[in-house]
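>> Question from a student workshop board

For tomorrow's exercise we were told to take the sequence and the ligand below, predict the bound structure, and bring the output to class. My setup keeps failing. Could a helper post the expected result so I can at least see what it should look like? The ligand is adenosine-5'-triphosphate.
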Amino acid sequence: MNLSGLPEPERLIARIDHLEENSRFIQNALEMALSLGDFQKNINESHGPNRVLQEAENRIRKLISFEICAMCLVNEDNADMEISLCEPCDRKDYIQDEIAFMTENGFFAWALHEKRGIFVKSKDQKKDFFLHVMATCSRIRGMFIGLLPNEKQRIPDASLSLLSLILLNTANAIESLESYNLVVEQNSILEAEVEARTRELINYEKRLQRARKMEAIGTLAGGVAHDLNNILSGLVSYPELLLMDIPENSPLRKPLLTIKKSGEKAASIVQDLLTLARRGVGNREVVNLNRIIDEYLKSLEFEKLQVYHPGIRIKTDLDENLLPVSASPVHLSKTIMNLISNAAEAIPGKGEILISTRNTYIDTPIKGYDHVNEGDYVTLKVSDNGTGISPEDMERIFEPFYTKKVMGRSGTGLGMAVVWGTVKDHNGYIDVQSVPGRGT
Ligand SMILES: Nc1ncnc2c1ncn2[C@@H]1O[C@H](COP(=O)(O)OP(=O)(O)OP(=O)(O)O)[C@@H](O)[C@H]1O
Ligand SMILES: [Mg+2]
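>> Workshop helper replied:
Here is what the output should look like for this input. Compare the format with yours to find the bug.
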């Protein structure tokens, strides 16, 4: 401003005007700098980076009247600069074209190197662009590209400094937003993991309790069974001896037979109790499970089961190449018998039982009803389309004496307990899947 030659008062007034304008500018600039704190709001309210860019552009416009404002963000996947905002938006193609030109001619690289605003010529050399990198102290986040108005006007240094401040803040806000989103994402992953672990722990606790309960009951049952076994041997053997001595038509014959039968029934319960106490699995041999199944299906016991349940079809699907196992055939046979009779008893009327065997290799532990470790197994599956088991019953079916059946013909409630004990003695695992009304 050339003020020389003016009369004294005008000079002073012009000087005052100039100072006032300066003061207004500084005041505006300070307010603008203060308002940059608002960027934080976008992060708190989970707005995306575009909202931050929009806010930045609004402020830049108030500072310098660019014809076009564009902002590029670095794509983290391929490190490309992509236009995220262009105002006015119908000039995006034009800017894209200019960006390609700037990249080819190394203008971008230059701006990145300078780490401040630079002025470059447009492709046709007729216009001027202003380039400014958006970077935090650790990372380049993007670039600001502004097309300067045609009529040449000097941009005050203070405005350029403020523009740098806005762009630094923009880069910081975008980085905070990214960190914030990352934290939120990690948090939800962690929450899901904690939930899964908790479920696993509860499951483990349940299995542990079940195993402890079975162990305690087994020990108790074993003690009782051991004593009863001795007493029962008299009850079974003496009627036999007496029956040999008394005449064929003696009226004592019937009651003696009843005593003998009751004794035998009691002995078989005691045998189950002994299995539970895990005292029985001594004589192991190498056996094929298929053979034991076949034998059971040919037994008198099975024939009797079929007489009681005439509407049931039995299907088998036995693996021809089933590997042999080291096991107690008597206990395996009992297990099969219990599973099949339970299946039959669960079918009211017509239904189907499927018995299948397979060689199974388990390479990752299964966390189901039982926690199954890795290894080679022979699996036996008995499925029925009977009444199914409710979730509440499922928790208790392996307990000794837990039964929903009428005491008498069947229903001591020892069947599944024996299955459990036998399977555990053979280093095996049990899984039960059941849908009430559909089958087990
Ligand atoms: N396949 C199945 N379908 C439906 N319920 C079943 C099945 N298997 C077992 N259950 C339920 O589990 C309970 C316990 O079975 P478990 O074999 O231990 O005893 P039980 O069959 O009642 O008597 P026992 O076997 O001593 O004659 C049964 O009473 C029944 O309610
Ligand atoms: Mg049973």
